[in-house]
Amino acid sequence: MSDMQKFNDGLLSFLDQSPTPFHAVEAMLKRLRAAGFEALDEREEWKLKPGGRYFVVRNGSSVVAFCCGQSNLQQRGWRMVGAHTDSPNLKVKPNPELHRHGYFQVGVEVYGGALLNPWFDRDLGLAGRVNYENAKGELCSCLLNITRPVGLIPSLAIHLDREANNSHAVNPQKDLPVVLLQSADKEDFRALIATELATQGFADVAKVLDYELSFYDCQQAALVGWNGDFIASARLDNLLSCFVGLQALLNSDANSHTVLVCNDHEEVGSQSAVGAQGPMLESVLRRIAGDEVSWQRTMANSMMISADNAHGIHPNFSDRHDANHGPLLNAGPVIKNNVNQRYATNSGTSSLFRRLCGDAAVPVQSFVVRSDMACGSTVGPLTAAAIGVKTLDVGVPTFAMHSIRELAGSQDAYNLAKVLTAYYGLESVNTGD
């Protein structure tokens, strides 16, 4: 088996293990612990050692992992990679119960900018965090993952909506309640969850108090295409980048000071205690750096690469791209540019990345959104503004971004990991500016 095949097998497994940000962080922590990383408690004093490998978690959905290199931190600076753990989905409402015509349904909220039509007629599992009271009256929490299909959103038959193929706007309030079961009884959603938790080994659940649960597509990640050219999966945006950054970190040079930050809440603006617009990364880094002068010296020698998927040129909709900036799948990572700072790339950081790609014999592409279209954004500009670090935005080209199932090239994630591994080992990030 080739190195790329092993990498993709690991990526597919990670995607299947990570139906929610909570599960994604849990899956990352297992890999970090296996590699010798130690957990740090922000409530305690830290005693960091040269060569030490550590991680900090907040809310169970965001993580900062870092390696304390053997070199001088102020002189060398940090090599950082940022990604996000969340993806658009359908979240269960606090009081979701709907009893209509003998069917038990649950109401959902749309999290992020989801492409809604593909959610219909899918086998849906349910996963997330549940908070409960145990038999001793203690507050507890656990992760739940119901991998079997427990829900679906049936489409309306074409016979009852003859214009469905011409125009079909989705009303999230009216059209998206999920069918769970058929019953004449008034089912209680929290009671169903308590019963399910008991079957999964949580026998001490006395009462479910609250939850953060999301529906997800039960179909597993897979290599697809006649020659296996593509990876198809839910949540490629942006768990693919989380996995790429993690693998690069695990393979990084022990002499370097390296950081991987994977934040929650990017898809809804990042403005939270654990989002990229919050204080998490800065507070961890300042604690490592020490006094203010050390912090400023370190940041002046540091760099951040924000890794978040890019829009590959769709062969059926090529007119949605600028003709000179249509990235192809399996043609290398994409440098993302925007003059209005929706991406944080500048000519210096992009030049450094191009040289890294050249040294690794990895092709590189560029993306600029059409001048008459709005541009999305990433954690890159937010991080750059918050801590004043030079930043680059890159990503793997994909199709169907924000759909329930997205598509990427089977070579691109592996190639980006090679480049980020080399970046982590850079002695200097001097971009000549």
From TrEMBL:
Q: Please name one Pfam family that this protein belongs to.
A: Peptidase_M18
Cofactor(s) needed for function: Zn(2+)
Q: Which UniProt keywords apply?
A: Aminopeptidase, Hydrolase, Metal-binding, Metalloprotease, Protease, Zinc
InterPro entries, alphabetically?
Answer: Peptidase_M18 (IPR001948), Peptidase_M18_dom2 (IPR023358)
Which interval of the chain is the signal sequence? none
Q: Please, which domain of life does this record's source organism belong to?
A: Bacteria
Instruction: Reply yes or no: does the keyword Transmembrane apply.
Output: no
- Catalytic class of the enzyme: hydrolase
GO MF: aminopeptidase activity
EC numbers, comma separated: 3.4.11.-
Q: Is Thylakoid given among the entry's keywords?
A: no
Q: Transmembrane region positions? A: none
The entry's family comment says: Belongs to the peptidase M18 family.
> What NCBIfam families does the database record attribute to this sequence?
PRK02813.1
Q: Write down what this protein is called.
A: M18 family aminopeptidase
